[in-house]
Amino acid sequence: MQVQIQALMAGGQGGRETAPREIARGAEVVKLQIFDGTAARVAGFITACKLYIRMRMREEMVEGQIQWILLYVQGGTADVWKENVMEELEAGEVEYELVEDFLICLKKEFGGGEEESVKTMELRKLEQGGKTMEEFVQEFKRAARRSGYKGRPLIEEFKRGINSGIWRKLMELENPPTFIELWYRRVTALNRNWRESRRRG
Description:
Elements: H1 2-10, H2 42-56, H3 62-71, H4 76-90, H5 99-110, H6 112-125, H7 133-144, H8 151-161, H9 164-172, H10 180-200
């Protein structure tokens, strides 16, 4: 496997700043960034890998999919991990039935509690400011997904981040939302109506 990976990388431009050449057929769907083992980037890297594989590498064998992912694992602590994985695969010590199983192992290695801590800090810093509510909700969802926050604590963090004017308008309504998804929908609708009224005025 190591020889195959080296051959694939030889076709690229070299260097750790430049992503290797895509090995799948068809137009490029997503340009992956090199993953160096940084905990805060593991979730995005895995999502990008899944997207590309589903759209361009469905027919590829699992071994080929894993080889492609390893092309983008470079630098930092990721180099040592990749070497160990390659040796285990070549020796037949490990075998993955699905590429998702391999990605789970990658996430466990580089994500863990540190990723949750990073997401928690990101969530606490989020504020709507000049962003539209749609933009803020998407940012909040992304940070909340792995922050460990649920239920009432998650709602309180969301209320803290939205602009005070929208928050007050929502609290003036009867039966304020009790679930975070309802908060997302209600504040988005309120913010949209507020923008429309200002445009007409």
